[in-house]
Specification:
Blueprint (H helix, E strand, L loop, with lengths): L1 H11 L19 H12 L7 H8 L1 H10 L5 H7 L12 H4 L3 H10 L10 H17 L5 H18 L3 H13 L7 H4 L2 H12 L4 H9 L2 H6 L14 H8 L2 H8 L14 H10 L9 H10 L3 E3 L7 H7 L8 E3 L2 E3 L9 E3 L2 E3 L5 H12 L2 H15 L6 H13 L4 H9 L2 H5 L10 H11 L3 E2 L4 H9 L22 H15 L6 E2 L12 H9 L13 H4 L20 H19 L1 H4 L2
Antiparallel strand pairs: 1-3, 2-3, 4-5, 6-7
Length: 591
C-alpha cells in the first residue's frame, strides 16, 4: 500500500495543475530582461546567446512553467548522445556489456599476455600498451569506458538540454544522495542511478526518491547496506514465518533454509547517513540508538542481479516467498538476514515479526519528519538563493514541504516566488561550482562540445571530479568552499585556453559576436557580462576593455608589423584576450 501511494505521488505531482504566479522581480528593482537573465543564471547552467530574449518573449512565468514540467523536446541532446553505447542499453545491461579491468587482465593472461606486477616504468607502459591492443582487437569495453561515457553524457545534457531546471536539480539530488564511483560495484550502477531514478524524480516526490535510492544497488553498495544482516542472536523474518506456519507445512517450507544463524553483522553506515545527510540533518533530533534501530529495520536489504550466476542463493530464495523473501529488479530482501525483533525508532514502536515493510515505513517516517522539511528547505535555499539563507525563507519552504507531503515542484515555485530570491539579483553572492563554471563558459558563447577526456581532468583540477566525491556528503552547496588560490588559478587557465580554442573538443567562434569594424571589448562584454556593459569602469577587467595595460590596438602582436590582414587578425587576437579575461573575471564566476 505504501509503495503504491509513493508511486502515485511521484507520477501525479502535488501541484502540477497550479500555474506559476507573477514573480515579484519588479519589487526588487529589476526589469523583465534583468529578471529573465537572473532566472537563467540561477535555474540553468547559464544562458546561451539569445536565450534571455527568448525568455522575455515567452514570458517569465510561462518559461518557468515549462521548466517545471520538464518535457521540452530534446532533439539536439539526443542526437549528440546517440553515439554512446551505454545509453541505448536497458537498465542493468551495461553490467554485462562492460567488463572490469581485473577480468580483462585475466582474459589477456589466458592468451599469453603475462600480468605485470613489478618492474620498470618502461615495462609497465609496454604492458599497458599491449593490454589496450588486446582490448581493441577483441572489441572489449571496460568499466573505464563506461565511466567516460557516463561523464560525457552529463556534460552534454548540461550543455544542450532544453530542460535545464531538471538537469540542475538532477545534479543537486545526486549530491544530496551522493554515491562515488570509486569501486566497480558502484561505478557500474551509477548510470541507472542517475538516468532511471534521480532524473525522472528530480521534480517529483522526495519520499519516493528516498525509498528508491535506498533500494538501488549503487547506494546499497556505496554505504554497505548490501552486507548488513541481523546479529546472530536476533530472530529473523525467516525464523518468525517458519515458526508461525502450520506444523504440516514446515517441512516443505524449510527446504534447506538457514534457520540458525552462525554469524551476523549489522552495518550502520547507511542508516547513519540517511538520517544525517538525506533526511533529518545532523541536528535533526535523533540519537545513536535511533541509528541502530534504523539499521535493524533495513537489515536484509541487499542486491541480487537478475543475470547473476548465484545458484546457491537462488535455490534459497525461490521457494522462500512464504518465508518473507522478496526480489524486485536488482533489489533483494533476504528474510534470513532481517532482524525481526521489536524496535523503537524516533518514538515509533515497531512490533516483532516484520519484514521488508519495516524499512519502508521507517523511511516514510523520516521523509515526513519536520526536521527533514527544514533540512531540505535550507539546502535548496542554499543552492538557489545564497550560502546563508534567511531563516524566514527556510521556514516558508519547510511549511510548503509539509503541506505538499514532500513534493519538489511546489518547493521550487515557492522559492522563485520569494522576495529573498530576487533580492540576490542586486548582490550576487553564489560562486559557480567547477561544473557550473565549465558549462556556463561553453553555453554563454555557444561553443560546440565534443568528447575529450581532457574535459574531465579540467573539472578535477578545478576541484569537482564528476561522480567521484568520496565522502557521502557530496559536494557542498555552500559556494564559499570553491574559493581557493589553486582552484582560481585553474579557472583562469581554463578560461585562457578556452578563449584561444586550445581545449580539444570545445570550439568557439568569437567572430560570430564581433561585427566587421567593431571593437571586441564592447561586443564581448555585451555577450558575456551584459549586466556590466554600461558600467565598464566598475569591472575588474576594465583596463583591458578600455585599451589600457598594453592592449591598445597598436600593440605589436605579430612579427610582421603590418601584414595585409593586420586589422582582421588584430581583432581576432584581441577578441580571444578579451574573452579570456572576461570569462576568468570575478563577475562571470558569480551565478
Amino acid at each position: 500500500m505504501l509503495r503504491r501511494l509513493l508511486i502515485a505521488l511521484a507520477l501525479t505531482g502535488w501541484s502540477a495543475a497550479q500555474p506559476v504566479q507573477p514573480m515579484p522581480y519588479r519589487a526588487a528593482g529589476l526589469n523583465e530582461r534583468q529578471a529573465a537573465r537572473f532566472l537563467l543564471q540561477r535555474l540553468t547552467f547559464g544562458p546561451c546567446p539569445g536565450e534571455v530574449e527568448a525568455v522575455v518573449s515567452q514570458g517569465l512565468e510561462r518559461w518557468l512553467q515549462g521548466q517545471l514540467d520538464g518535457v521540452a523536446p530534446e532533439e539536439e541532446a539526443t542526437f549528440r548522445l546517440a553515439s554512446l553505447p551505454c545509453l541505448s542499453m536497458q537498465a542493468g545491461e551495461e553490467r554485462t556489456a562492460y567488463i572490469s579491468r581485473g577480468r580483462m587482465v585475466e582474459m589477456a593472461e589466458r592468451e599469453a599476455l603475462k600480468k605485470w606486477t613489478e618492474g620498470s616504468e618502461r615495462s609497465r607502459q609496454v604492458y599497458e600498451a599491449r593490454l589496450r591492443e588486446f582490448k581493441e582487437t577483441r572489441g572489449l569495453s571496460s568499466y573505464d569506458d563506461l565511466f567516460d561515457e557516463l561523464r560525457y553524457q552529463k556534460l552534454v545534457r548540461c550543455r544542450y538540454s532544453k530542460n535545464q531546471l531538471r538537469e540542475v536539480l538532477t545534479d543537486f539530488w545526486f549530491n544530496h544522495f551522493n554515491v562515488a564511483a570509486v569501486n566497480d560495484n558502484v561505478r557500474v550502477n551509477v548510470l541507472s542511478y542517475e538516468r532511471d531514478l534521480l532524473r525522472p524524480l528530480a521534480l517529483g516526490s522526495f519520499p519516493a526518491m528516498l525509498q528508491r535510492t535506498a533500494q538501488h544497488p549503487a547506494m546499497l553498495y556505496y554505504l554497505d547496506n548490501a552486507q548488513s544482516s541481523a546479529p546472530a542472536a536476533a530472530k529473523t523474518t525467516l525464523n518468525v514465518r517458519y515458526e508461525s506456519a502450520p506444523k504440516e507445512d514446515q517441512e516443505d517450507l524449510r527446504q534447506g533454509q538457514p534457520l540458525k544463524r552462525k554469524n551476523g553483522g549489522l552495518n550502520e553506515n547507511y542508516a547513519r547517513e540517511v538520517m544525517e545527510l538525506h533526511t533529518l540533518g545532523v541536528d535533526g533530533g535523533y540519537s545513536q540508538k535511533d541509528v541502530t534501530e534504523l539499521a535493524r529495520c533495513l537489515s536484509g536489504w541487499t542486491v541480487l542481479y537478475p543475470e547473476a550466476q548465484n545458484d546457491s542463493l537462488r535455490a534459497l530464495i525461490e521457494p522462500g516467498q512464504a518465508l518473507g523473501y522478496e526480489q524486485q529488479g536488482d533489489f533483494l530482501f533476504r528474510a534470513d538476514w532481517h532482524d525481526a525483533d521489536a524496535k523503537v525508532l524516533l518514538g515509533h514502536s515497531i512490533a516483532a515479526g516484520g519484514g521488508r515493510e519495516e524499512g519502508e515505513q521507517a523511511l516514510a517516517w523520516l521523509a515526513q519528519h519536520p526536521s527533514t522539511a527544514r533540512f531540505l528547505a535550507r539546502k535548496l535555499a542554499q543552492r538557489f538563493v545564497c550560502d546563508d539563507p534567511p531563516p524566514a525563507l527556510v521556514e516558508r519552504l519547510a511549511r510548503t514541504y509539509r503541506q505538499s507531503q514532500g513534493e519538489i515542484r511546489p518547493l521550487m515555485v515557492a522559492l522563485v516566488e520569494s522576495p529573498e530570491f530576487w533580492a540576490e539579483a542586486a548582490r550576487p553572492s553564489k560562486v559557480k561550482s567547477p561544473l557550473e563554471y565549465f558549462v556556463s563558459c561553453i553555453r554563454c558563447c555557444g561553443a560546440e562540445l565534443h568528447f575529450d577526456r581532457g574535459h574531465f581532468y579540467w573539472l578535477q583540477r578545478m576541484g569537482e571530479p564528476l561522480y567521484a566525491c568520496p565522502p557521502p556528503t557530496g559536494y557542498s552547496e555552500d559556494s564559499r568552499g570553491w574559493i581557493s588560490t589553486g582552484s582560481l588559478v585553474n579557472r583562469l587557465n581554463f578560461a585562457t585556453q578556452l578563449s584561444q580554442n586550445r581545449i580539444k573538443g570545445i570550439t568557439v567562434e568569437w567572430n560570430r559576436y564581433v561585427g566587421q569594424g567593431q571593437e571586441p571589448g564592447p561586443a564581448l562584454l555585451a555577450l558575456l557580462l551584459p549586466d556590466h556593459s554600461s558600467d565598464v569602469l566598475a569591472l575588474s577587467a576594465q583596463k583591458l576593455l578600455t585599451g589600457g595595460d598594453g592592449y591598445a590596438p597598436q600593440r605589436n602582436w605579430f612579427r610582421n608589423l603590418k601584414p595585409a590582414d593586420y586589422e582582421q587578425r588584430r581583432r581576432q587576437v584581441w577578441s580571444t584576450k578579451v574573452a579570456g579575461v572576461l570569462l576568468a573575471s570575478p563577475e562571470f564566476q558569480y551565478r
